Amino acid sequence: MSVPNGVTHHILTVLVENKAGVLSRVAGLFSRRGFNIFSLAVSPTDDERFSRMTIVVDAESAPLEQVVKQLNKLINVIKITEVPPEEGVERELMMVTVKATAEARGQVTELTAIFEAKIVDVGFDAMTIMVAGEPEKLDAFSDLVKPFGIVEIQRTGRIALPRLARQPTRLRAVRTARA
Amino acid sequence: MKLTGAQALIKSLEMEGVEVMFGLPGGAILPVYDPLIESSIRHVLVRHEQGAGHMASGYAWATGRPGVAMVTSGPAATNIVTPLCDAYMDSVPFVCITGQVPYKVIGTDAFQEADTVGITMPITKHNWLVSDANDIPRIVREAFHVATTGRPGPVLVDVPKDVSNQTMEWYWPDKVDLPGYKPNVKGHPRQVKDAARLVMEARRPVVYAGGGILKAGASAELLQFAELTGIPVVTTLMARGAIPDEHELCLGMPGMHGNYTAITSMQKADLLVTLGARFDDRVTGNPATFAPHAKVIHVDIDPAELGKVRRPDVPIVGDCKVVIAELVKAVRAEQEKHGRPDLSEWHATLREWQQRYPLTYQQEDGGPLKPQYVVEALRANTPDDTILASGVGQHQMWASQLWKFKQPNTWINSGGLGTMGYAIPAAIGAKVGRPDRMVWAIDGDGCFQMTAQELVTASAERIPIKVAILNNAYLGMVRQWQELFYEERYSEVYLSPDLPDYVKWAEAMGCVGMRVDNPDDVVPTIEKANEIDDRPVVIDFRTDYREKVYPMVPAGGSNDDIILGPEFGEGGR
Ligand SMILES: Cc1ncc(C[n+]2csc(CCOP(=O)(O)OP(=O)(O)O)c2C)c(N)n1
Ligand SMILES: [Mg+2]
Fold first, then answer.
1. Would you call B2 exposed, middle or buried from its count of C-beta atoms within 10 A (0-12, 13-18, 19+)?
2. Which residues of B are catalytic?
3. What ipTM goes with this model?
4. A5, pLDDT greater than 70
5. What is the pLDDT of residues B118-177, one digit of tens each?
6. Residue B86 φ then ψ, to 5°
7. Gap from CA of B471 to ligand 2 centroid (Å)
8. Are B226 and B394 in contact (CB under 8 A)?
9. Domain with CATH 3.40.50.970 in chain B
10. Does domain B189-356 have CATH number 3.40.50.620?
11. B2-4 vs B42-45, strand pairing mode
12. Where in chain B is the domain with CATH 3.40.50.1220?
């Protein structure tokens, strides 16, 4: 599911020290202020001392500014970049197990091809398909296979990077603080 | 050189220049208490870990150096949670060392195991769980660096017992490497210039001075700025003493129980020069109606404070001492070009308010003893540089309102958290840090009962503090709210004037105990207390329980609606 329409969503990419407890420090700051983290992806970076978190929150921008500033105060947080949705490249990975008896198998395979997805496992009456791409594409795929019956679905949460070159990225939520 | 983790910890504390620590041993911290015997560090053995934490805090307030406390795991760690939270709210540099169950059994519900790092994560500036004795010197260095730089605050280092027993090769790191921690000290020159311009344009400016002034040691700069510009200064509860109360530009305390002139000056101001203050709700009342005409310059070392409550016209991230000095330079340059703005009309208005709406109370001869009179008598009969600590409640407000502060860092209280029981341990910590000073605590009868046992510590360690209990037999501040806002329906606020018997209790704890009922005895008893220098003194002042703290802005109300008190008639509005 992507963020419901009409709700401002924010994507923060947060470079953190790769240390025990950092995730709970970061998560704690959000929960203390009543923010729901919509999705969260954590992964190592090319420098083993650091990890990158991609955090999607739905929020009005004023209170988010406060969260971003508080995040900045965490000793383990190195850098925060807000990626405005229109200025970022977002991708997500989904694996979905769909009921697919012999008769349905063809239709599911067809959808898989259209979405440039991949069949990663096949059973007697079900198939597991991997889809990667923009979150909306994943939404569309899961909507389309729903009628066949979804057994299980898992998504990674999105990761994002700023689009290149055209515009310098800026810290939207913290711009007033950079005095 | 091979050391155990425990030896390395003590040696690291010595390397950091720690002279004294407050604590109480137990199972998980036992290994660390052993090398303490040979250490140059003085250890003050408390009677409850909460006491250790507040002592460390009082020490830090009085000396500007970080306070250190050391306790064991589990219940000891949870006992020190309140002081950590208190220090976090008031930005007090405080390094707390806790013992932990052995690293290899963490997570098994071992005896006296508590997730100390998890519990204290939201109430420390940072905390560390040590997993390897080789990390100890580095972590201790980092801990002191984080606690004392930028916006100061409490930090905690949790040391498992097996890590304390592990051997390591001693080293001392020559620098701190924290890639995510780079506090900005120096204000941005363009912002400073913009601020100076606003200062030149303002005709009704007010300096809103907060605790950041004292943390930065910027009292001299504040005074210089005020005198250069002629801008009057309000000092918040956290900043009392930042500029002497008797200075003609000092307007005293604003906020819920501030004086009329301090509160109203901000309401009518066209510029707030906010220095190390954070627009706390106890200062602003309803923020929507706070200082509605004022442009805002906001200087703070913590970028997160800028715009948190009130969006500043000129935000400046930086250390108050550095930024105010830069501001002085910038304003002086402007004044050389354009002359000094004429604020005489504003000064006249303020003076008129001060005359019309002073802080008042009536002490009748032979009548019930007024708490305000006790505070004024204490001030008049103690040295200028006396350090005053207080608890939380009515007595705290009277102390803050009526004590004439003459020097910075002479006022110690629990501002942000409002921790009852703060006064006695904080006063002890202050006296340990400044043995040359007279240290008084003004305490409530309710507060006293929360931490009085630390007077045993004070007696045993020969820390001669003096405690004035303003004994009104009530949880007075709560009673005041019930009287004013709950139709005098008093619910669970009566304590009794003589249960406990405070004099006997004081004596049982090795202190001198005295009692005063009559206004005539106030000054002689204070004089007697001042002469005692070999043990703590407790004076039980039996004060009038009906007395209320005025002025008052009801919680959440507008600062335009000040209740002045009965002496001003018509409900005192
Ligand atoms: C630990 C704690 N518990 C409760 C409160 C709420 N509270 C604030 S003031 C107060 C009354 C304090 O009574 P006392 O110490 O006698 O001071 P007084 O107001 O009578 O001067 C209470 C209960 C608090 N601030 N801290
Ligand atoms: Mg009382």
1. exposed
2. 49, 111-112, 161, 477
3. 0.90
4. no
5. 999 999 999 999 999 999 999 999 999 999 999 999 999 999 999 999 999 999 999 999
6. -60, -50
7. 5
8. no
9. 2-169, 371-550
10. no
11. unpaired
12. 189-356
Q: What is the pTM of this model?
A: 0.95
For residue A25, give the chain B residue with the closest CA.
Answer: B121
Contacts 24+ apart (CB under 8 A), B278-283: B278/B210, B278/B305, B278/B308, B278/B309, B279/B308, B279/B309, B279/B310, B280/B236, B280/B255, B280/B416, B281/B555, B281/B556, B282/B237, B282/B255, B282/B256, B283/B208, B283/B236, B283/B254, B283/B255, B283/B256, B283/B258
Q: Sorting pLDDT into bands at 50, 70 and 90, what band is B571?
A: very low
pLDDT for the residue numbered A2: 55
- Contacts of A134-137 with CB under 8 Å at 24 or more apart are A134/A90, A134/A91, A134/A92, A135/A2, A135/A90, A135/A92, A136/A2
Specify whether the backbone of B380 is left (phi greater than 0), alpha (psi in -120 to 50) or beta: alpha
Q: In degrees, to the nearest 5, what angle opens at C-alpha B406 toward C-alphas B401 and B409? A: 85
Which domains are assigned to chain A? 4-82 (3.30.70.260), 89-162 (3.30.70.1150)
The topology under which CATH files domain B2-169 is Rossmann fold (3.40.50)
Query: What is the interface size between A and B, counted as CB pairs within 8 Å?
Result: 58
Phi, psi of A58 (to 5 degrees): -100, 125
Pick the CATH number of B371-550 from 3.90.320.10, 3.40.50.720, 3.40.50.970, 2.30.110.10: 3.40.50.970
Of A17, A65, A179, the CB nearest to B315: A179
Cβ–Cβ < 8 Å for B95, B83: no
